[in-house]
Amino acid sequence: MKNKRFFNKTVYHGFVLLLGFMMIYPVLWMIAGSFKDNGEILRGSLSLIPETFKLENYSTGWSGFGKITFKTFFANSIFITVTATFGTVVSSALVAYSLSRIKFRGSKFWFSCMLATMMLPGQVIMIPQYLIYHKLGLVPGYVPLILPYFCGQAFFIYQMMQFMKGIPRELDEAATIDGCSKYTIFSKIILPLLKSSIVTTVIIQFYWKWDDFLGPLLYLSKPQTYTVSIAIKQFADAASTTDFGAMFAMSTLSLIPVFLIFLFFNRYLVTGIGTSGLKG
Amino acid sequence: MKGAAIKNGRMRSLIYNDNTVGHIFALPFIFGFISFSLIPIVFSFYYSFTDYSLGTKTAEWIGFVNFVNIFKDEVFFKSLLKTLQYVVVSVPLKLSFSLMIAFLLTRKSKLVTLYRSLYYIPSLVGGSVAVALVWKQLFARRGLFNTVLDNIGLPTINWFGDQNLAIYPLILLSVWQFGSSMIIFAAGLKEIPTTYYEAAKIDGAKGYQSFFRITLPCLSPIIQYNLVMQTIAAFMSFTQALIITGGGPNNSTMLYGLYVYNQAFKYNNMGYASAMSWIMLIVMSLVTMVIFKSSKLWVFSESGD
Fold this sequence. Notes:
By secondary structure, chain A is mainly α. Chain A is 75% helix and 0% strand. The longest helix of chain A is centred in the last third of the chain and has 35 residues, at 244-278. Chain B has two domains: 2-47; 67-304, MetI-like fold (Orthogonal Bundle), CATH 1.10.3720. Chain B is built from 14 helices and two strands; from the N terminus they run ααββαααααααααααα. Chains A and B meet through helix 1, helix 4, helix 5, helix 6 and helix 10 of A and helix 2, helix 5, helix 6, helix 7 and helix 9 of B.
């Protein structure tokens, strides 16, 4: 009996691990590829261990193109991502508070507008948005990539609202009796309790923005302003015979920030997606 | 002095009045909604009835000409059909796969949380340019998939050279990113009371019976949520197509979003592209509506039994 249970357990864990390994194989293959020789990649080698360790891939890749190194691209990406993520957190928390805790004229109307923007396909407004920014003389530039994030992101507003439902209203009431205004309640009570929801927002928004390809593609034209995602694409297109090893080296580097954040905060990510999705 | 105090008091009550406070907190959204959603939508609607090229031609009202031309455009129909194929194949596959994995990971074990993170990794990186480039290489003529086929003695496939097959690497890439649906399913599975299963077991139900009679009905609201969200996402996806296939060969992977992008930013037909995006909006609303309307038939609500 005990033996059978042990056997079952081993089969289960073995199977789950094997399947999981298959799932992340492409990622591992990319990392292995970043140390491989071009020829080995082009032969379609399955191996995760390079025949010859070619560390130069990283230095070749890092030197970038057109005399601009990947240092610039990483700096640009970090600037855009950090600013946009900061904007998302601050604005979404403010809006979520007003829509879930304050009764004001039009609050229901704005709430439905918020739900509507969640369902609205981005491509319908992509063209007019571009044209408007263009008329305002903001293309090319960073403003279109950052400004909207300071106006609250529907997905995160909704998620924070779901989270706030779990914060007892008695806390607000007690604070009101003690003479606190809504501003104080927000900053002293709601905000500190919102921590895990904020962390979720930071992670998800960070990697969405870090991976964003369409935005930079539309709004950036000078290579000095490129983000990492655009730069890698350019890097792959630039040379007639692509240096795959160097391309994978830069691809691997580009995923490191995302992995780091995931590694440290993945607990929040799992609960965050779980709760925000569930109550939809 | 007294007057000032009253004035001050009025000022205070104005600032601390719920109506004012609410609007102040909601201001970022109100501003953003009007300038980044509402105005663009109105403009987009207007542009769809115009002939407009950025820099060379100001918007000129042409009535329904764009829509008439769209319905004569072969590439439009091809991209619409390919997008539907992409959605209809990838979404159900992704949902069943993510449900399967979520179900697999319901065991009580400390390792399960770790496994869930492992299975989430594809979703974490799947949207990036880096992975798109890897994918391109995996399915290349002499790429990894063909090496596998070759090793087991099957003929190799020219994935991106074949009109009928080129869409499948893209579908696979979408299915591969099953992580967030999986996590949502996992949260849902945890909510199903174990007493249901115990009762079924006493009644002699087999494993698959309790899956189809208990698990699926209890999960149906979550299945619906995932279905809607993933369908919308699938309709809009185009970055991967842009990087991996560029729409080829012969427009066989020209996902709708990619075609809109090309019309707008490659050929500078802003009016035509706006009209196309409105057709997309209508198609998507219809599909979402069908999902919601049909939900009476298959979504189980606890109040309804």
